[in-house]
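[Automated response] Your request has been received and processed.

Submitted sequence:
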Amino acid sequence: MRSNRRIRWAAVPVAVGLVIALAGCSQQQLNGWLPGTEETKDVTNHTSRVVGLWTTSWIVLLAVGLIVWGLIIWAAIVYRRRKGQTGLPVQMRYNMPLEIFYTIVPLILVLGFFAFTAKDQAAIEKPFAQPDTTVHVYGKRWGWDFNYINQNDPSKSVYYQGIQAQEEENANGAIDESQLPTLYLPVDKKVKIELDSRDVDHSFWVIDFLYKKDMLPGKTNYEYFIPQKIGTYQGKCAELCGEYHSLMLFQVKVVSSSDYQAYLDTLTDQGKVGLLGDEYNTNTNQPDNKAPVTASSDDK
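Generated structure:
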């Protein structure tokens, strides 16, 4: 009788897991609750890879969780103190097979997660030998500057200077999207993004691209991707950088190659030719800066 009861209790978590699995998942669940749906999975050439790593990791972790929860519940029920029992149960010093099991299995899981993560990260971070478009992005409190670099003649590069997001009057904190800094990118082109900070730590994050990178003073970071879907995407700083961090927003417009060139021509017509450089940085405490010379009585 007792053995049958144990089997029934042990079967409960297994049955629950099977019911959940057989119930099926919505498309949002299959997408790991990440931004977008099936049709926006390929916003860039990396998004499917990121979604696959994310959802597969959670499936494995959920399976491990079900096993662990099932064993905990089973042990709590089967080995509970029963009426009339006194004293301590039989004590065991060790169980070598069990100890080997719970040492080796987690090690295999960790190594597996590391291997797949390293593989995908290497693919995502692989530089383009010859990017079609290079944009140098400066993060600043609390806006963004964009340099659209002309690889053939840098003197013909154009730039855009952005400001922090502006809140509309009497709109309960709503943002005036028409004044948001906007980064234009051509669809189906290899894009290289160079990232620098003018002051403190920032983070360049385009939400639907599932890709963000820190912007650190004195260090240039890079992103490489191919936008594959025309549209407007929201971006923001993902690193707490000061009082108006929440207003350090921007947009990314992925457009056709002709529209992209038309936008660059518009910047040229506005006289925004050249490159915005480090001369506008407000952080003077950089590793390569020279210390000021101390005045002395020997100075002439």
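Summary generated for your ticket: The chain has two domains: 2-79+93-124, 133-280. The beta strands are 133-140, 143-149, 158-161, 182-186, 191-197, 202-206, 211-215, 221-225, 231-237, 249-255.
If you did not submit this request, please reply to this message.
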